[in-house]
């Protein structure tokens, strides 16, 4: 009961703090005090899409910095569909850009304040993890956090070194991710070594198959330039993203198989190499489908917004598919190949290592 | 032959080689899910309510992922019910939070890709975002639900004397093992996809305060966190439903 109260209280305190944290930011934050609609107009484009544009005058009271407590009136234009704009309501907090130019103060709306939502959702995840598995749950979170930091370090290295073949940098990052995550979940032992070896072999073979398939077909139907946010060679960026995405699922499959086989050996020491291999393949068969579907859902759902924009502006199904979804599908397929290949790899390696051994841990 | 057809062919052959008949069924489940997702995009474009389409597509996808390739009826039925409950809870969580976070549509960082378009297309980007978020969590919850329910089914069959408290405890243990790895899958899947974005943000010299409030970064982080919530919820609910079912079965045979 006391624990429940503490959890609710911590959430409440966090909410109140995040809603009033404007003093932590250098950029001015304004709170919407008053809103009045100035004009409403209807639009219609060449594809007969109808929309509504509203201009509102928003009165902000600035919450921080040297302009604190000053009142600013700004115009905001928003559409009903809201692709790149949004309506402001009384009580919203918004970042503003205020610049002094020749003695005249110029201000404009910069972006919406979203930190409260992010912090509250993070709090919910931590509470749920703790409620489910106590401190072990936080260890899971630690593994994700450690990987995230490594990921950011490699992003920084990439920008600093500005290599021509930066793909190898992220391939190295992927290798470190594997070793670290499996170390945190399994610990350093024979099982860890076998899992790492299967993950690496599965990933490398799948990537090679993917590359061969792309060069044999001359990359027909794949437009690397459709990759969002690309600031470096889009082909290498795409391959790097594929390796990292591929790794997660391959690791998932390999861990399931290897840990099941090690458990079998522990309970039955006389189990044969052939039997172990067979059992590994059976485990693999049952997880293969769901795992590939996990990736399909992640990669495909991300393309929804863009695909609808393409369809709405009169593009054909084939064109929309090629330019918005093809890259995600290639990623899913390469990952699927990786998952399928890691099943025999993990089964074979575990069977070889465990088959003749007298003891699991020797 | 296009790259995608060749890769699809390779995947199909490998899945059949490794999995035989059940490998082929798994391959079909991926193809069906793809077709449903594609149909969902077209229906939403046609003006049908995005949330309605998502709900219907979600039920179909969960059914396909769970029932195709699994034969045990008790555990798959439980897994299916558990995932449906979680999908409804997630909708109730996502609808208000996405409204408050205002992460719909496109971000400033994407302006290069969308500058050729007139964005006044009369679509409701807010409901489209909800649809995207719900659908992206479904694969992970289906996988977790099947793993736990079949694991517990196996356990209760091998140890008929096991108590309900022990079943709940094992459910959590199995859940913990799955969760660690599922988080990694989700994390690498999503952040791997955002690699280019992170490089761009880094090059823009964005400060930490900007990260915490920018549409794109908050949106991507919230997607990962939603999946985490969904996976934890599905572990709880599947374990509870499975325990209840085993309990009922025992009472039925005892008396």
Automatic annotation (TrEMBL), chain A:
The chain crosses the membrane at residues 116-133, 140-159, 165-185, 192-217, 237-262, 291-311, 323-343. Coiled coil: none annotated. Pfam families: YibE_F. InterPro entries: YibE_F. The keyword Transmembrane helix applies. Keywords: Membrane, Transmembrane, Transmembrane helix. This is Uncharacterized membrane protein.
Automatic annotation (TrEMBL), chain B:
Pfam families: YibE_F. The keyword Transmembrane helix applies. InterPro entries: UCP031503_TM, YibE_F. It comes from the Bacteria. The chain crosses the membrane at residues 6-27, 34-67, 79-101, 178-202, 222-242. Keywords: Membrane, Transmembrane, Transmembrane helix. PANTHER family: MEMBRANE PROTEIN (PTHR41771:SF1), MEMBRANE PROTEIN-RELATED (PTHR41771). This is Integral membrane protein. It comes from Ligilactobacillus ruminis. The lineage of its organism: Bacteria, Bacillati, Bacillota, Bacilli, Lactobacillales.
């Amino acid at each position: 009961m006391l624990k429940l109260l503490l959890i609710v209280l911590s959430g409440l305190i966090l909410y109140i703090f995040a809603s009033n944290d404007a003093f932590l930011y250098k950029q001015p934050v304004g709170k919407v005090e008053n809103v009045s609609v100035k004009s409403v107009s209807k639009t219609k484009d060449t594809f007969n899409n109808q929309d509504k544009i509203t201009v509102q005058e928003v009165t902000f009271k600035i919450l921080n910095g040297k302009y604190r407590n000053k009142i600013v009136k700004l115009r905001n234009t928003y559409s009903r569909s809201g692709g790149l704009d949004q309506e402001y309501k009384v009580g919203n907090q918004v970042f503003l850009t205020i610049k002094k130019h020749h003695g005249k103060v110029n201000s404009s709306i910069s972006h919406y304040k979203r930190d409260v939502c992010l912090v509250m959702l993070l709090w919910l995840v931590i509470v749920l993890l703790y409620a489910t598995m106590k401190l072990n749950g936080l260890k899971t979170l630690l593994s994700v956090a450690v990987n995230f930091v490594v990921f950011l370090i490699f992003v920084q290295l990439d920008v600093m070194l500005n290599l021509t073949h930066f793909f190898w940098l992220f391939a190295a990052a992927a290798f470190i991710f594997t070793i670290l995550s499996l170390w945190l979940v399994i610990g350093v032992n024979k099982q860890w070594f076998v899992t790492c070896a299967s993950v690496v072999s599965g990933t490398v073979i799948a990537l090679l198959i993917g590359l061969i398939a792309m060069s044999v077909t001359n990359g027909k139907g794949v437009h690397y330039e459709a990759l969002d946010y690309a600031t470096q060679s889009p082909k290498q960026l795409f391959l790097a993203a594929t390796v990292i995405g591929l790794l997660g699922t391959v690791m998932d499959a390999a861990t399931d198989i290897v840990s099941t086989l090690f458990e079998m050996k522990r309970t039955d020491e006389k189990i044969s190499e052939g039997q172990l291999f067979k059992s590994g393949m059976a485990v693999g068969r049952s997880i293969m489908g769901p795992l590939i579907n996990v990736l399909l859902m992640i990669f495909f759902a991300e393309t929804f917004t863009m695909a609808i924009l393409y369809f709405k502006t009169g593009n054909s199904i084939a064109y929309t598919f090629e330019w918005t979804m093809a890259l995600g599908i290639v990623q899913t397929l390469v990952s699927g190949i990786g998952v399928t290949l890691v099943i025999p790899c993990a089964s074979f390696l575990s069977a070889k290592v465990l088959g003749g051994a007298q003891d699991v841990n020797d | 032959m296009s790259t995608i057809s060749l890769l699809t062919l390779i995947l199909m052959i490998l899945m059949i080689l490794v999995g035989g008949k059940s490998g082929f069924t798994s391959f079909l489940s991926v193809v069906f899910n793809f077709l449903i997702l594609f149909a969902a995009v077209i229906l939403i474009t046609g003006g049908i309510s995005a949330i309605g389409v998502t709900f219907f597509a979600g039920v179909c996808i969960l059914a396909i992922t769970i029932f195709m390739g699994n034969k045990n009826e008790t555990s798959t039925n439980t897994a299916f019910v558990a995932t449906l409950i979680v999908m409804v809870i997630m909708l109730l969580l996502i609808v208000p939070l996405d409204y408050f976070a205002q992460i719909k549509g496109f971000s400033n960082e994407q302006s290069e890709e969308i500058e050729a378009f007139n964005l006044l297309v009369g679509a409701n980007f807010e409901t489209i975002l909800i649809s995207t978020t719900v659908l992206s969590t479904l694969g992970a919850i289906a996988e977790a639900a099947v793993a736990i329910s079949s694991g517990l089914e196996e356990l209760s069959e091998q140890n008929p004397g096991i108590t309900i408290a022990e079943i709940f405890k094992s459910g959590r243990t199995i859940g913990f093992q799955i969760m660690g790895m599922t988080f990694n899958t989700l994390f690498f899947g999503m952040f791997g996809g955002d690699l280019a974005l992170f490089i761009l943000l880094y090059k823009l010299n964005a400060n930490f305060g900007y990260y915490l409030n920018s549409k794109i970064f908050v949106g991507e982080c919230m997607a990962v966190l939603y999946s985490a919530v969904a996976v934890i919820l599905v572990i709880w609910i599947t374990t509870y439903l499975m325990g209840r079912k085993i309990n009922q079965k025992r009472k039925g045979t005892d008396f």
